[in-house]
Specification:
By secondary structure, the chain is of the alpha+beta class. Helices cover 40% and strands 22% of the residues. The strands form 2 sheets. It has a 3-stranded antiparallel β-sheet with strand order 1-2-3, with no helix packed on it. Strands 4-5 form a two-stranded antiparallel ribbon. The radius of gyration is 19 Å and the shape is globular.
Amino acid sequence: MDATDLRALQKPLKDKYREDGASAAVPAKAVAVLDGASIGVSVDGFAGTTRAGLHPAAGGDGTEACSADMLCEAVAACAGVTLRSVATAMGVELRNASVTAEGTWDARGTLGVDRAVPVGLTDVTITFDFSSDADEATEAKLVQLAERYCVIAQTLRVPPTLTVRRA
């Protein structure tokens, strides 16, 4: 896909969203089904069912996905797709491109060992690694725009309102 194809693909969507802003609100949803026989859960997603469970640092055996790793996977995927989209729109050909998302969490928080320790990831780093024919300023702009338009990165930067309830 080139810049012309991408613009043609997105033009009717952008026109619709400019005319009717409410139509741009896209719902997202995931359901974790608890397994009565273990601590793990099943989450159905685009690529099938993922079994998630305790990280070895919290007592798991490492055979099930860790939620923190899944969050990093979502960041890396979103940033990668966004980088490719921005590069395509700018007419920049990327070579050997990858995006790595890394984070750190302290098991003392999630295990309740120390209430002063936060629960959850306390830092996330996104690393864009690529080569191109573009100059350094253009490559810097690609990274800046990929970060700016990455839904997951921006969700982490400006956390949404979180509502917790019981059905």
